[in-house]
Request: fold
Amino acid sequence: MEGREPAAGDLRGPDPRPAAAGLADREVRPAGLGRGDLRGDPREGPGRRQHPEERRAGGSRRGPHPGHARPDPEVLLLLPRRGLRTDRRPVVVKILIPTRNRPTALRGLLEYLARFYPGADVFVADGSHPEFQPQNEAYVKSLQESGAPHVEYQAFHHDISLFERLSTVLQSLDSEFVSLCADDDYPVVETLEQAERRLAETPGAMFAGGHLVHININSTRSSVARLDAVRDLTSDDVLERLTMFGAFPFTTSYGVARRELLIERYAFLQTWTSTSFFDLAVGLTDLIQGKFVGVPEFAFLCTRNEVHSYYRPEDGLAYLRNAGKVLDLNDRLVQRLVDAGCEPERTSQVVGSVVARRLAGVVGHPPFRLVGFRETYPYATPGMDHARAKFADLFVEGTPERERYAERLQFISDNVRRILESTDNAGEAAVYGTL
Reply:
């Protein structure tokens, strides 16, 4: 689907599962099947090399691998969030929401922000067709009258692409830091506030974020929750940052970024995009600009459902059909790095290796299937184990993690039901191949 934008503000590209699978999954079964068990994943053994993160933490501290528990869907419906610390400077994150032809989804997201984060600062960039924009504008106006949250709204012609729309808005904002949020994804704003603080405090950092929980509704009977865990990529050596990211990529388009980084990102995406390599390309181009700071908390509760359209590969051979684009990406990255002063031979080796790893994942051999991958960095570290344990606890009754997110997940579940039953979120089947 070359030259087409991700539907309705989906900033992730295709389902990033090939890049992020293996961290942890949860299959959500119809009511009555129960939670199931949590299977361990022993990874200790002689000769395993410790990563510096483990040494700094005083040794290996791995908890059980979450495995594939099968919780009742109601387990997703989790409780009041904890209060924020008041001993730091106040942070109000600018949240930019692109939307297109999904008024029920947009309204649900804005209701979520009004209920849980009435102090949020929101900008809606609406690229919907004329039959949908009046609904969006009317609801935003009602929020503006109530004053909670603060919402700005700008309508665009539906022929203007997502990336052009975002570029236009970003050029007009005066915020130093911005968080991008699709209209069917729900931010954990206190994590974004923490990310903004760490971003501002870290020399050379250009973006920051926390873990993502993806809740994919595949049909009326099946859904899967999946963890997309982040980690620090703060080396002063840009090629080392790219190597560490390429070893186990994660979605970087959600979080908080400096506005100039986002302007650069979406200018680039107006000239290059490829479905299967979208997230990798975004991560690599952003890391050339600067460091990524990971926050060990959930930052977004992302949803994707059967009545929403989104980027999908054309077929199983999409990676071959887009071979020219992949080579072009490789060459662009190498040239940018060499122009910035990197040694040409090492640069070619690093970029080529990262692109080849992603290609292996696309054809069915992602990193976590490699022998020994689960015993080494970046998978087997205290930070990643902590993320997997948090994700597992999200589905266990009585845990602090479940209590912390219960009320928000209940709201999201109810809103997803409304979206599935609505008639105004059908997407554009002719363009995106909606189910």
